[in-house]
Amino acid sequence: MEKIIVKGGNKLQGEVDISIAKNSVLPIIVATILNPRKITIKKVPLLEDVLVLVNLLRELECSVEFSDITGDLIIDTSNLKEIEPSNDLIKRMRASFLIVGPMLARFGRCKISMPGGCNIGSRPVDLHLKGFKKLGVDIESGHGYINTKTEGLKGGRVYLDFPSVGATENLMMAAVCAEGVTIIENAAEEPEIWDLARFLNSMGAKVEGAGYGRITITGVKELKETESFTPIYDRIEAGTFIVAAAITKSKITINGVNEEHLMPCIEKLTEVGVKFKIDGEKMLVDGTEDRFPVDIKTLPYPGFPTDMQPQMMALLSLTNGVSIITETVFENRFMHVGELVRMGANIKIDGRIAIVEGVKQLTGCEVKATDLRAGAAMILAGLVANGETIISEIHHIDRGYTRIEDKFNSLGANVHRIKI
Description:
The protein is built from 14 helices and 22 strands. It is of the alpha+beta class and 420 residues long. A hairpin with a 6-residue loop joins strand 4 (63-66) and strand 5. The longest helix has 14 residues, at 259-272. Phosphoenolpyruvate binds at residues 22-23. GO terms for molecular function: UDP-N-acetylglucosamine 1-carboxyvinyltransferase activity.
């Protein structure tokens, strides 16, 4: 078992490079199932979630090669077998459920166990299944499994009750080779949706409107060979380092940003008092000015991302005044509150609302990463806490951040991983 130890008090300075987006890479890896050819995905971060999908594809007898030096992930699904994937791998990560759409498109059937992931909310797959039914899929479920099959996918109109990212991605991939036209209404608008469409189109798919709430997919008979593909930068990792500059009252440069993708975070952090200078993919963050309390309400993109809520709570816990955070996306996404309170934060919960009254100082102690983004929040809090912050259950952090301690230490922080 490993833990991360953070010694607080250091100012940050210098530059940090942002990795390719985890939430973009995962569906793109799965989408290679659609095309029985060798495909290269560039600059892939070596994350726990990536390794789970790699092992899942290998279990299905695909060829997968990964270069630690370049980050090139070379996938060949030409020998993909129509077999039931490992129950253990599916339960380790929710994104593994995304194989259903491509498997239906390629084989017309897929049996899979219910997926797992961070325990931040119910995140049911009913939206996926309702959408599949609209495309002509028969579904049976029971005893922890879902069995899907079709005589042939046919285009249809799908309205999502909620703009679910996973359901949008799964339906997009299923519809790529379906007969006719599929329209997804109230689709998720996250940048990662646009990036998946960009990848599918690079293989000859016909996907229009991704990122704008109404996606039209015209089915094609087969996909074609594609050049190597580089996904977008990770806007949540970038947001985490922006908050790091703000919470330590430092100036840093972040390389690998997309201003449009980060706009919800930039706008809210500007209200807090953070200054930005953006030149292309380079961002100078100045967190040295006074901070002000703000109210935040998490919403699907282009609203404020729920994946940045824990990090912002860590910052606001040290911001003079009272801030209100309303979590509308995941019902269990306040599990990190207890850990921040252990460090001296003054936070009260009322249902899906957190009332954060800023304190002058946090104190390092033993805390745990209750989920992926909560783990990032613990590191941020530890950067400014008195003494040492010892973080356990860091496997959650490794699901979404690559070499996080190295990146923080390159900026002058004191963050170390130990084995116990």
